[in-house]
Amino acid sequence: MKRFVVRLLVNSIALWLTTLIVAGVSVESYEPGETLATVLTYLLVALIFGVVNAVIGNFIRIVAFPVYVLTLGLIALIVNGLLLLLVAWISDLIGFGLVVDGFWWGVLGAIVLGLLSWLISVLLRPLVGRNR
């Protein structure tokens, strides 16, 4: 449970930083101007992203493994961009959340999100510990 909460917080912070860095990626709060609503929106979008990445992302990685090998893993950039667009679509269905301005913004956002998530995880590892 502790690992899940830490992962959710890391992804939320990485998503927030991504929206500050990448102009074509933003998050719309369910109550604009309210700090708590904005934080909860980032947590919800990070949760949606985690579920989509765990379920659909892993399925795609398994099924498309030969393509990953042939492209030396570069197809992962496209797949992660599409997964980010899927999260934007799902959050749009609930009326708030992630907004991605297009496919290439999704790819760039996925790259930045992945790098930031990895960096934050590396920085927090000594504080949280390596227990799995």
Give me some keywords for this one.
single chain, 132 residues, mainly alpha, two-stranded antiparallel sheet, 2 strands, globular
State the end-to-end CA separation: 10 Å
Which structural class do the helices and strands define?
Answer: mainly alpha
Please write the string of helix (H) and strand (E) elements: HEHHHEH
DSSP strand count = 2
Spatial strand sequence of the major β-sheet: 1-2
Radius of gyration: 15 Å
Beta-strand residue fraction: 5-15%
Q: What average pLDDT do the residues reach?
A: 92
Q: Could you estimate the helical fraction of the residues in percent?
A: over 70%
How can the largest sheet be summarized?
2 strands, antiparallel
* Count of separate structural domains: 1
Shape: globular
Poorly predicted runs are none
> What is the count of DSSP helices, taking H or I runs of 4+ residues?
5
Describe this protein's structure:
With 132 residues, the protein is mostly helical. It has one domain (2-128). 76% of the residues lie in helices and 6% in strands. The protein has 5 helices and 2 strands. Strands 1-2 form a two-stranded antiparallel ribbon. α4 packs across α5 (103-128). The protein is globular. The model has no long low-confidence stretch (mean pLDDT 92).
